[in-house]
Amino acid sequence: MNRHLLNYLGWRLLQSLVVITIVVIGSFMLLHLVPGDMVDVLGGQRGDMDAELMATLRTRYGLDQPMLVQLFNYVTGVLQGDLGYSFRNSNTVLSLVLQRLPATILLVVCSVAVAVFIGTLAGVFAARHVHRPIDVIISMVVLVFYATPVFMTGLGLVIIFSVKLKLLPVGGLITPGVDMTTLQLVGDVAQHLILPVLSLSLFYIAIYARLARASMLQVLNQDYIRTAYAKGLGTSHVIIGHALRNALLPVVTMVGLQIAELFGGAVLTETIFSLPGVGRLAYDSVFERDYPLILGVLLVCSFVIILVNLIIDLIYTLLDPRVEVSR
Amino acid sequence: MTPSASAPKGALLDVEGLSILIKDKRGDVRAVDDVSFSVAAGETLAIVGESGAGKSLTALALMRLLPKTLGVEAKRITLAGQDLTSPSELDIRKVRGSVMAMIFQDPLSALNPVLTVERQLVEAIRLHETISRTDARARALELLDMVRIPAASARLGEYPHRLSGGMRQRVMIAMALAGRPKLILADEPTTALDVTISGQILDLLKELQRDLGLGMLFITHDLHVVRSVAHRVAVMYSGRVVESGSVADVFERPRHPYTEGLIQARPHGSFVTDGHRLREIAGTVPVPAARPPGCAFEPRCVRAEADCRQVVPPLVREAGTPRSLACFHPLQQEQYA
């Protein structure tokens, strides 16, 4: 790690801080534009609350304060690591989100890995056989994946592999009520993850396959590829040693851009496969109008996304020496 | 066709009847048409001509590095005693870099941007000899010294974009020398460089060629460059060789009207504006698909007569000289003074 890289890291962290502050304030204000608060929802569900009780509740939870004061209270809390309390779940927001985060991260990371790996492989293969039947077939298959909504892929996979073939579990992350060794646990979780990861990644395989194909074709036309052949290298050496790394650059950029989108896709996938992830938590909290929880989920997710993008940028500077880090 | 400018015995590279075809459904077009030449060990042959004359294609065809849309046909190609008329993929791979190596025009785009100089050099070295990484690194340093890169060991860790244009071309040359080739194909190696650097690179190539006894096929459009590096020259026009011979001979006594035109079109090294326009050759080079049935230069030639329009003049060796000419009505030697 040189000094330049450290400076760059510091600068990027500062930037991230600004982004997170904007996310916090922005989403807080946005949620307060929606008419009705948590007490209204509670009252509506219970049906037996009078105006006095509602007012008391509002006073107790600070909901009667002006918005700016509420914002100030919230931000001070966040700075101290307190994301608020979810009354619907009788737990702190932070522990609720942290409980659910591992499942989502597991799902998203596995899906990205599968999508990038298979997508790039398919794309490079297609580029090597450009305009030949196999290239056309790959293009058509990935187009079908691309055009199919995630929930349909998910339901289709469940029907085939879980219901008909009974090969894989329908949903959940762990088989409940069974004592397992660590190794068995890993295997069990992996089994549960196959279908969710597949249904989420199929869509992205399509994107990466198209991107890798186009990028590879462009790289294969570069002069330095001709130089590599002129040295006497064989085709596979040229592809792996000279073309692939250059062709991967746009793919890496795309991963960074799509991480946020993948978290969105995780909501659907987690719902279909009843995975205990952040996506479902967000989904539920919106319907319960659990403001602190919605905010908490938003905050933690944007934090993760910013962190991932930082890592992607670092990977990019390692892959492409022409990107000189500065500041 | 009469065998032309035929190889001196034991030529390093001997090419006879090389054609490059642009494959097309309506019939193939010959981008390079029946070209023959040879290069002896320790000799530099320059191929000179305008853009689109087929010079670079010829070099790429020898390395079999043409895009798949172009076909290569040849009566005979031999390189260092090996028949390369229609080599297998494996045969040509064994020859690339080790018997003949190529230097390209633009050293920035010809070097891989994401690999260090060391990676690219060591790769070339270890491809052609079984040698440890440490030894390969030492050899890489030696090569950089050979092409006179200062502070060579510091340069090994650099990426191409951190080097100057001249430095990049030196790295390119070092890479070409890595496999200890016998023949260097230099495709306009100084065109992308500025004048002073270009002079240094030419001097370097000349020296390396002489010291290592290399054969060199030097492709350029610059007559001054031909004069400074080459022993012999072949003038190409629209995919054909129209005249060849020793540089001094051809430049002092051009016999083909095109060669004469090229020499006349050259500025005379003076900044004095005496109101004279440089002489130009009227018209443009025909594209290969629209080449006239006779001599390709006929529409632009002041000496053209009826026979030039009907038959392609063959490249014929002049009796008792190392010169060849493809012209029915050449300039007489005494005519040019």
From TrEMBL, chain A:
<keyword id="KW-0472">Membrane</keyword>
<dbReference type="InterPro" id="IPR045621">
    <property type="entry name" value="BPD_transp_1_N"/>
</dbReference>
<comment type="similarity">
    <text>Belongs to the binding-protein-dependent transport system permease family.</text>
</comment>
<feature type="transmembrane region" description="Helical">
    <location>
        <begin position="137"/>
        <end position="163"/>
    </location>
</feature>
<keyword id="KW-1003">Cell membrane</keyword>
<feature type="transmembrane region" description="Helical">
    <location>
        <begin position="12"/>
        <end position="34"/>
    </location>
</feature>
<feature type="transmembrane region" description="Helical">
    <location>
        <begin position="103"/>
        <end position="125"/>
    </location>
</feature>
<protein>
    <submittedName>
        <fullName>ABC transporter permease</fullName>
    </submittedName>
</protein>
<feature type="domain" description="ABC transmembrane type-1">
    <location>
        <begin position="101"/>
        <end position="316"/>
    </location>
</feature>
<keyword id="KW-1133">Transmembrane helix</keyword>
<feature type="transmembrane region" description="Helical">
    <location>
        <begin position="293"/>
        <end position="319"/>
    </location>
</feature>
<dbReference type="Pfam" id="PF19300">
    <property type="entry name" value="BPD_transp_1_N"/>
</dbReference>
<keyword id="KW-0812">Transmembrane</keyword>
<dbReference type="Pfam" id="PF00528">
    <property type="entry name" value="BPD_transp_1"/>
</dbReference>
<dbReference type="InterPro" id="IPR035906">
    <property type="entry name" value="MetI-like_sf"/>
</dbReference>
<feature type="transmembrane region" description="Helical">
    <location>
        <begin position="189"/>
        <end position="209"/>
    </location>
</feature>
<dbReference type="InterPro" id="IPR000515">
    <property type="entry name" value="MetI-like"/>
</dbReference>
<keyword id="KW-0813">Transport</keyword>
UniProtKB/TrEMBL annotation, chain B:
<feature type="domain" description="ABC transporter">
    <location>
        <begin position="13"/>
        <end position="263"/>
    </location>
</feature>
<dbReference type="InterPro" id="IPR017871">
    <property type="entry name" value="ABC_transporter-like_CS"/>
</dbReference>
<protein>
    <submittedName>
        <fullName>ABC transporter ATP-binding protein</fullName>
    </submittedName>
</protein>
<dbReference type="Pfam" id="PF08352">
    <property type="entry name" value="oligo_HPY"/>
</dbReference>
<dbReference type="GO" id="GO:0005524">
    <property type="term" value="F:ATP binding"/>
</dbReference>
<keyword id="KW-0813">Transport</keyword>
<keyword id="KW-0472">Membrane</keyword>
<keyword id="KW-1003">Cell membrane</keyword>
<dbReference type="InterPro" id="IPR003439">
    <property type="entry name" value="ABC_transporter-like_ATP-bd"/>
</dbReference>
<dbReference type="Pfam" id="PF00005">
    <property type="entry name" value="ABC_tran"/>
</dbReference>
<keyword id="KW-0067">ATP-binding</keyword>
<dbReference type="InterPro" id="IPR013563">
    <property type="entry name" value="Oligopep_ABC_C"/>
</dbReference>
<comment type="similarity">
    <text>Belongs to the ABC transporter superfamily.</text>
</comment>
<dbReference type="InterPro" id="IPR050388">
    <property type="entry name" value="ABC_Ni/Peptide_Import"/>
</dbReference>
<dbReference type="InterPro" id="IPR027417">
    <property type="entry name" value="P-loop_NTPase"/>
</dbReference>
<keyword id="KW-0547">Nucleotide-binding</keyword>
<dbReference type="InterPro" id="IPR003593">
    <property type="entry name" value="AAA+_ATPase"/>
</dbReference>
